[in-house]
Structure prediction request, 485 residues.
Amino acid sequence: MFSDHPKGLKVLFYTELWERMSYYGMRGLLVLFMTASIADGGLNYSNISASAIYGIYASSVYLLALPGGWIGDRILGQQKAIFYGGVIITLGHFILAINFTSTFFFGLTFVVLGTGLLKPNISALVGELYEKKEELKQSGFTLFYMAINIGSVLGFFICGYLGEKIGWHYGFSAAGFGMALGIIRYKYSLPILGNVGLKPNLQITNLEKRRDIRLVTLLLAIVFIILFFGILGIVKFDPVPLANILTLFISSIAILYFFYIFVFGSLDTKEKKNITMIIVLFISSAFFWAGFDQAGSSFSIFAKEYTNRFIFNWEYPSIWIQILNPILVVVLSPFLAALWISLGKKMLDPSLPFKFGIGLILMAIGFIFVAIGANIAISNGSAGVKWLLLTYLFHTLGELTISPIGLAAISDLSPKKYVGQMMGIWFLASSLGAIMAGLLSGQATNEGLVSMPILFNKIAFGASIFGMILIIISRPLNRFLLEKK
Ligand code: GLN
Prediction:
């Protein structure tokens, strides 16, 4: 599989595999753990609070990709950023494994900080491996996307079983062991990476470096002081208003960034048109993840409480249902890649907004199935697993028309000098999507099962309208943007 690729890819493949194993394994348990009663070892939070915390958590992971990339570029270099990121994530999972409520938010904060450091730097390093083999880069990224999904299969399978069947904290420990294994393997294989990503990409003076380190330390100190006050009860956090504020904050960063780059980025007309396309993709992708990320929130609650999961009198863990998504990504990616290539040869390859429009409509179809399932559960007490499986099938097809394509489009459309930042902006769309997902999940589950079909149908309606608008404007938009001036 790796034969034509740079040797370093294998190192990054396994590191990302174990990082995603720990990320998805833990994320799968998160809402279930928070909403479980104290008697069941959980935190007994309401659905709406647990969903908002899930949103804040998942969104912060992607939001911190911006400073994480910045630290990798200026201070640490990618190799070290990945290593320290992995160590911090491992610590976070082991803190979560401690059976105390007070340490829970510390654990989560560590996982957020570590992932923010690891994820953007490992993605950038994959690209850098291909400086001399540009033609293999796309297929390198495809292999990397496979690592992500093989990791999630393992995470859902192992952490899901241990967490749901044996005890929550065993699931969190398994995530910690997975990341520890990944980071030990990484450290051991570092010589294979050689000089790629060894030093920071940007040459800055020692003075600037010291100033940067002071800034990062100060910000970290502020985060931990606020957290400490929160845990001691000195400051009270209400997750729902906090999630609303975060949504505004992330949207403002995006608006200000795009405004800044348009006005002060010294872009020519062509580059401005490319950025316009990136804005369209950004908004569509944020909407897509807002729906898709129900997997770890409202769908998790639906799977656990209202889905019949018995096989031969054994009730399998609810998280296992999510495994369909990564399995299908691994199985279907090569077919979709072949489809785009063959359509491309016939000059029929659909434009980017068209593909994103299709992705949103596929997501909407997925929501119709889970809404049917929820209605069945309202009348029968529970629904068959097929409804969630159908939802995951359509959501995966949507993911494949949006996520890998978006990644490639960003690297093609970004002005050369801004590629790194644009990758950060791409993750910012995931961040905005995740926080909206948390808020939507709160609305979907607020009154238990009865509120689910109403909201799922609303999302289906909204996503299909948005998808259709994208398809309708795709032609004129493309004509305008591709026009040479
Ligand atoms: N599944 C992909 C990953 O974990 C993309 C997720 C996202 O961008 N929201 O990397």
